[in-house]
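Tokens for ATP-sensitive inward rectifier potassium channel 8. Go.
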Amino acid sequence: MLARKSIIPEEFALPALASRAPRKPVFRDRVNKARFIAKSGACNLAHKNIREQGRFLQDVFTTLVDLKWRFTLVIFTMTFLCSWLLFAMAWWLVAFAHGDLDLARQSGVEQCVTNVKSFTSAFLFSIEVQVTIGFGGRMITEQCPIAITVLILQNIAGLIINAVMLGCIFMKTAQSHRRAETLIFSRQACIAVRNSRLCFMIRVGDLRKSMIINAAVRLQVVRKTTTPEGEVIPIHQIDIQSESAVASNSIFLLAPLIICHVIDKDSPLYDLSAMELQCSDLEIIVILEGVVETTGITTQARTSYVSEEIQWGHRFVPIVTEEEGVYSVDYSKFGNTVKVGTPGCSARELDEKPSILIQTMQKSELSHQNSLRKRNSMRRNNSIRKNNSMQRNNLSLAVPKVQFFTPEGGQNVAVT
């Protein structure tokens, strides 16, 4: 009896076949985690257990600007009311000390402030002094130097309150993030081959005609990492360079641009394939900074892309066309993409085996040619059907010939 080794060659044995069979990578299910930056650009971060709350009062102006509008308006109103009431009390005390409130002495002694007979009249005079209304019914006299001093103090305090509050409201209405509302990003990001390299691409645009001066784009990859020492870094930020890395990523944002990041050996996306990308928990943050041309204020717009929002093997469609000597931008196609031939392997595998890219491009070209043939054949068939239907309609519309027979069996007469 022959041995098993002589009957079945060793290279076709089950262990050898199993060892040579390509194994699909095993990925763990991706756990849905919170975004670090929302699509609108807001930071998804909550500050808790802050014990040193007094630090916010050391910068009162910034604290007032950062407050919500309802709190700012309440503080604005209460500040003026409190100042009017405080100086109304001061004017009432001046009148009380001088004896202006004594009805028996009002006829014989000149008052410090005329027509201040009660706290209500003192409150009205306080409002007139601080907001410079001056109805003329109440006025200060030269009898009391202390009244002149109170008048000077109230004018200075009123100017300070007006400067702070109006400056706070101006800063809230002219905040930089208001300008960022018209800076838009594409909802999806793309990974495709550009110039024979895998590239991560997004599209940015500006809806206003006023430009952003010195615009710069920064890309960051945020992911949870563990160091070799066992330290867990929940938010590890890694800067990645875009294609326009010259002059600090400065761009000329006149029309919507496609920001491209070449996935090379220095990129954190170098080892990610199409399947691994879907299971990864990375988040790519895009930050656009620049100076507003009309106001000179620095503005910043932010967004982020998680793995579900990155389309592998897609490319953005062109949206800028030339019409009658003017370049036109169609924003209805701002986020539209088209599928292109892209290998599903990582950039590392693509660098190690360049033939993968050639084979993918050939398959893509063949599929494109086949689609063109099918499209042309469908058009040809449709034209043939249309011509046949037109011929049938013409035949049906033709007038038929009518033959009349004579009862004596004479010659037939055809009438058209």
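Residues 1-28 have pLDDT under 50 and may be disordered.
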